[in-house]
Amino acid sequence: MTNNMKTRPGHSRAAHSRGFVEWLDRNSRHIFLWPAVIMILIFSIFPLIASAIMALSRIRFRGGGYNVRFVWFQNFEKQLFGSEQFHFLGTFAGMSILGWLVAALTTVGIAVWIVSYIRSSFTVIGFVGRLITWGFTLGVGWMLAATLFSGHPFGTLGTTLFYVIVGCGIQFIIGLSLAFLCSLPIRGRGFFRVVFFVPLMITPIGVGYAFRMMADTTKGPFSPVWQWAGLKDFAWAADPWAARFFIMIGDSWQWIPFIFVVMLAALESVPRDYVEAAQVDGATGWEIFRDITWPQVVPVAATVLLIRVIEGFKIVDLPNIMTAGGPGIATESMTLHALFAWRSLDLGQSSAVAYLLLFVTVVTCVSFFNLVVLRRVRA
């Protein structure tokens, strides 16, 4: 009986240890995930909730503290319909004939799109999702018709969409072209791969200052080139479209290497057997790219373009450094708009602009994913 009493605690401790180890094995994935979940909750969810509260409030600082007053959606109303409408949407002072034509074509195009979807593959969830896309597209079309195509300046929403649609489109075309050239058996392609990758390692602030210096037509390193081209007295920072294009060039120089690297890896992963078989059958280079290479890399191309679009919506460094958002607000993106409002201690308007940017980004990226990526995957 004494021996049994001596051995039972040892057996109990061993059984408890084995049970604890088995419990760890069963729940190890949850144990390793919880620290990341907690960090996300602390550093993502809390700022999201705090900014939502600020977006629905009017905050005024005073000596020794601040006053918070809930105004609900007045900050958003101010951006969309109130005194800040010119800053966010643009100046609406009547539409020209071209503006009315663009607005009519946009409306007709959306109507045809709706009818086509209802007749082809109608689902309730899909219709609700596309309803948001249709409404956003119609709103942007009418905004551009009343501003850009009517000779009036547009606001930070139009400027941001210009950086995203035009800038990212040009960057993707150039990056894909360079990747295709470097995937061919040409001399010095290893050297070009390294050279094309270098801009990606430079910070956006450095890129902004570098292009601001190079674009100086009077004292910059390329001033002789500007003088030879007859642009000695050209103040690009005072012209809205010239300033936008210079910022887009700097942004493209920084981000084309990202598209180049990813697309180069995708192009080199295409099976050579398919290409060689097409060459034997007498296919041209364009036919090989169109019918064999491009279908193989479309999923990667859609993904890299989606990532670039998300980053494009967050552009802030280059317009802030190169032009400070000027002339006026011509080069001011929505992110820079929120930053300037935050600097002026108007935290409610800053948060409202940030949430409008979130809405625009989510609608654009989800629409692109559903209408382009998923459709290609199903096909």
How would you explain this protein's 3D organization?
This protein is mostly helical and 379 residues long. A hairpin with a 2-residue loop joins strand 1 and strand 2. Strands 1-2 form a two-stranded antiparallel sheet. It is built from 15 helices and two strands. The longest helix is centred in the first third of the chain and has 54 residues, at 2-55.
Give a quick set of tags describing it.
2 strands; single chain; MetI-like fold; globular; disordered N terminus; 15 helices; 2 domains; mainly alpha
What is the chain-wise order of helices and strands?
A: HEEHHHHHHHHHHHHHH
Radius of gyration: 28 Å
The fraction of residues in strands falls at under 5%
Q: What general outline do the C-alpha atoms trace?
A: globular
* Helix percentage range: over 70%
Average pLDDT reading: 86
Individual helix count = 15
Summarize the structure.
The chain is mainly alpha-helical.
How is this fold's topology laid out?
Layout: H1 2-55, E1 57-62, E2 65-70, H2 74-80, H3 85-88, H4 97-120, H5 124-146, H6 156-183, H7 189-197, H8 204-214, H9 223-228, H10 240-268, H11 272-280, H12 285-313, H13 317-322, H14 334-343, H15 347-378
Antiparallel strand pairs: 1-2
Helix pairs in contact: 1-15, 4-5, 5-15, 6-10, 6-12, 8-10, 10-12, 11-12, 12-15, 14-15
